[in-house]
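This section describes the prediction task in plain terms. A model, or a person checking by hand, is given the sequence of a single protein chain and must write out its three-dimensional structure as a string of tokens. No templates, partner chains or ligands are provided. The sample shown here is typical of the held-out split.
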Amino acid sequence: MRAYSLGTPDAEAPGLHDGSAITSRLDDALATKLVGVLRCRRHYFLARRDGAVHAVDMFLAHSNRELAHADAIAERIVELGAEPNFSPIAIAAHSHVTHVDRAPDIIGMAREGLDAVRGTDVALTEFLEFVGGRDAPTRRLLMSILDDDRSIARQLITLIATLGKP
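The expected answer:
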């Protein structure tokens, strides 16, 4: 798990505050990560039920990483003087990925997770471009999350390839 050094609120980024475009987009990213926590937890419990020991630890680790990302994003929102939105209605409305419960097996769950990670990657990359050089702490946070998400994607690709072989 990574430690996120986010800096101090508003000191190096004047104009960032509650209601800004950056805090609004951070709330969207928070919603996306919270949906990810739920998806990965579901996969963890289903993999346990199915006795898929090789996937159980991976799905739990992914859920914990998603939660760490959500916590870091919420912390950054607070540092910017805003309040993170944990409303279930807002989470459903603002997430960049949807919560899908259709995966019938471990490969399906891994594909579902991979699709979600890819969708999150696109959204966070666009957010990173939007931030540019205006807010260095948020930029560092997003870059760190993207690196971590890409690692998760590689793990899911490996799991799919391993399980897909006869």
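For orientation: The radius of gyration is 16 Å.
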